[in-house]
Amino acid sequence: MSVHQGRERLVVVGGDAAGMSAASQARRMKGPEELEIVAFERGHFTSFSACGIPYWVGGAVAERDALIARTPEEHRARGIDLRLRTEVTELDVSGGRVRARDVDSGAQSWTSYDRLVIATGARPVRPELPGADAPGVHGVQTLDDGQALLDTLARARGRRAVVVGAGYIGVEMAEALIDRGFEVTVVNRGKEPMSTLDPDMGRLVHRAMEGLGITMVNDAEVTKILTGEDGRVRAVATQHAEYPADVVVLGIGVRPQTALARAAGLPLGAHGGLLTDLAMRVRGHENIWAGGDCVEVLNLVSGQEQYVPLGTHANKHGQVIGTNAGGGYATFPGVVGTAVSKVCDLEIARTGLREKDARRVGLRYETVTIESTSRAGYYPGASPMTVKMLAERRTGRLLGVQIVGREGAAKRVDIAAVALTAGLTVEQMTALDLGYAPPFSPVWDPVLVAARKAAAKVRES
């Protein structure tokens, strides 16, 4: 054990959800006299909600600072040596140290560690296309990114926006730009938006987006981003058309930010994320942990490693890492793949496997899709809801659920998330004792209607 003024030193690389949750939890476990904690963050902010950025850009959240859970000053007051605008450029695993560079001055220095947490997050996918780096083209991952986009929107000479990609980020940013008064075109290479859903459910999202006035261009591959004489973006080109743009937002998704880990020889998975054990310890390295958007996690339904960059997981990873790095014991068993989003008042939810996920891992399955309502049909405000359910053939084990509907649709997916975690069959689900009153649900909840229909189909098969 190396000694720093009689204490061990924990170094954290990355100052958002996973990193600062880990630092804060480790501090709860051990006081400053036992454990020195140094955290490096290359941006201006810590502990912020990346998930909230589209709502800030769209104006639903008025102030940027509302997205900050804990300020740098608050972290420092808790005895964490937080160094902002400082980018870690190298991990020396054998030497137990990291090299960091001051972003503003360029000065570099080494910091040794006894224990290391890697929480480098994700980076927006930026296609290798002509013009992808032109002024007016934005990825949205950090508060700095969000501010840069808002600055561009304020200066834009026209009101035309193109969003490239129609996953969660693309769909949410398209609505945010509509709310800002822009004409919005979404260019998507998939058959339907929201590839996290099966295409038949994505079609419901497609209709809702068009209802908002968004122009959807599906089955289209962007070939280049065109610029004007001033070098700024002016259009997005596909194989067959050009779409004028005063601003372009890349909503293609994110990839794990693991260049440092790769260069250090740490183990990466098929999706490029760091591989950890149940304690979030980097495999093969006793004193290094990793969490958040830079790691791969076990999908409890498929049994395979998956890349799922979500703030819910990042905060849980941080709690587990901080407990272990602080001398305690905790584990993160895995995920079932639950996510929710919205387009205007349409709520979109999914958990477990899609049809193509089940096929990929060799599972045979039955599917059912039912139409129901959010409340008792006679109660004012009842709105339609579509539930799709996958069950394993022969065993009837629940494999996945997708829900698209109005008020009350999204959080219903939590019923299915619990059932997946518990390994319930659709037959067992039909007996779940769910809450009922006409303002909240029909007497048979939509999820249970789908489970009944799925159980019948499994019996038939």
TrEMBL record:
Belongs to the class-III pyridine nucleotide-disulfide oxidoreductase family. It comes from Streptomyces misionensis. One of its GO terms (molecular function) is oxidoreductase activity. Residues 341-443 form the Pyridine nucleotide-disulphide oxidoreductase dimerisation domain. This is Flavoprotein oxidoreductase. It holds the Pfam family Pyr_redox_dim. Coiled coil: none annotated. Its cofactor is FAD. Residues 9-301 form the FAD/NAD(P)-binding domain. InterPro entries: FAD-bd_OxRdtase (IPR050260), FAD/NAD-bd_sf (IPR036188), FAD/NAD-binding_dom (IPR023753), FAD/NAD-linked_Rdtase_dimer_sf (IPR016156), Pyr_nucl-diS_OxRdtase_dimer (IPR004099). Keywords: FAD, Flavoprotein, Oxidoreductase, Redox-active center.
